Automatic annotation (TrEMBL):
Organism for this UniProt entry: Paenibacillus solisilvae
InterPro entries from the UniProt entry: Glyas_Bleomycin-R_OHBP_Dase
Protein name, as recorded: Uncharacterized protein
Length: 57
């Protein structure tokens, strides 16, 4: 499993906390446009929606 991680590039990470699912979907769609989605937007077990790793080159 450890070999599936990619090197961390400092300075290019961020976090969004949005109140509504519609805001999350809009943010995800805008960030994903023209990028490579590694972990898509999905509902997690505690009820929130989460996504990570949208990469753009």
């Amino acid at each position: 499993m450890a070999d599936s991680f990619v090197p961390l590039t400092r300075g290019n990470g961020f976090s969004l906390n949005l109140q509504f699912e519609s805001e999350g979907r809009e943010a995800f769609n805008n960030l994903a446009a023209g990028g490579k989605v590694m972990h898509p937007l999905e509902q997690v077990f505690w009820g929130e929606y989460n996504f990570s790793d949208v990469r753009k080159t």
